[in-house]
Amino acid sequence: MSSLVSDKPKAExxxxxxxxxxxxxxxxxxxxxxxxxxxxxxxxxxxxxNRHLSTQIMPGVKEAFDARVEPKFAAANGRxxxxxxxxxxxxxxxxxxxxxxxxRRATMETRQQAGRWVTLRxxxxxxxxxxxxxxxxQRLKLNxxxxxxxxVEAIDHHCMPGxxxxxxxxxxxxxxxxxxxxxxxxxxxxxxxxxxxxxxxxAAWVKETLPDLKPKRILDIGAGLxxxxxxxxxxxxxxxxxxxxxxxxxxxxxxxxxxxMGVDNISFVQGDVSDLxxxxxxxxxxxxxxxxxxETSYASMPKIFAETHRLLKPxxxxxxxxxxxxxxxxxxFEQAMRDWDAFxxxxxxxxxxxxxxxxxxxxSAGFARDKxxxxxxxxxxxxxxxxxxxxxxxxxxxxxxxxxxxxxAVK
Amino acid sequence: xxxIDPLALAGAKSKGKRPYFLETDVERLTNIxxxxxxxxxxxxxxxDTLERLLEQSGVLTRQEIETFTPTKQQADERGAWTQExxxxxxxxxxxxxxxxxxxxxxxxEVADELAKV
Lengths: 411, 117
What we know:
By secondary structure, chain A is an alpha/beta fold. Helix content of chain A is 42%, strand content 12%. By secondary structure, chain B is mostly helical.
């Protein structure tokens, strides 16, 4: 028999696999939609695409920056870059940055389409399931008259059509469901089984940092569909947790999802966190946000900080989890790369939020400077199945790595 | 029937003017190619599932696939399919080549001509 291939199976794989797990490790809670074999394959492809972009193509952007973008700028201007905006504008003229950017944007849009297809084709079933789980449940408190903040209304964050608030039909939950099922693809599985690696990290951090804290009431501001507040509610099962968001579909889906996961101590309340006057002064022991401030605005941030100060009991703790701030120590190239999501992935406030001195804003809101705290956390996931951001040295997906800074204060 | 049409809505645009990094036509084509690459991965994964299930149920082994050698007739049939496939894919270049040797009026020009009284 003539054969170009060996007829013996290879004993050893050609290389050790290091990449995203198969999508089927994602947790199937009760609000999970049906995904076909091919729909799962799309998410597998997109997870790999994102990882390829961050590990194989993005390093080339830095190489191109060092080899030609920076020298060209210096030659033309007789000086180096003075800020991150100059760096970004120079990068925009470089072909590697252009191609990486074009593919990253295309991958994000393709991910949205893939997820929306899944949820929209079964919209009626999903919406009926959510209705059955949330109707007459006092823990869902919607306010249809709530005006949308400009920062939500102006643009659809991270290219998610309809953003957090749009309802295609009464009782719609397809938007948050799409968000939920697709985070795996955007992060290459970095956020764990229930996309809650951030919340798990927060819960572990609080227990380690403040072992004596026994919060009776916890407030999560900008909670979205509640994926990060669930582990916190589970870590403090005796606490009453309030999750606030501006988007009704998120809250509806969030309560339904939490119930199917057996988490019953969270209320999902529609509100604008710059004005929480319905909530009493000093009524919470712990207030936090997770990857939320960068989606607000200069106008709302002081109000948000002031509200957290008003709502916190003396001795209570507030903290915000975000990507690191742009400090003078951070190279301008890194700052420019981190700004990509601001300008090209519809996260407009990302750039400005990351340049402010959050400490001063906290102090202006009434917190004592000597009571401020800073820390760092990385997504906590099942290491047997999911990639661990804390140990991942192969990629620095500027702004998207599942490792964050914590800025907080004790009142 | 649901009021929500997934075909129309799944690919909806997100609010906010879209940035382009390449020449717009090149970037549009890049987006199309990316989705074709995605769908190829989908088909590849489905085939892989199929092979593994067939192997599990004892219908064939993947080793048999690896060592499969078509007979002369099978190889001819496969070669013919590949030729037809390539002819379809590169139709536009074939027609470009044919046009090199012609001097033809456009349909619009013929329309003008035929409308003359």
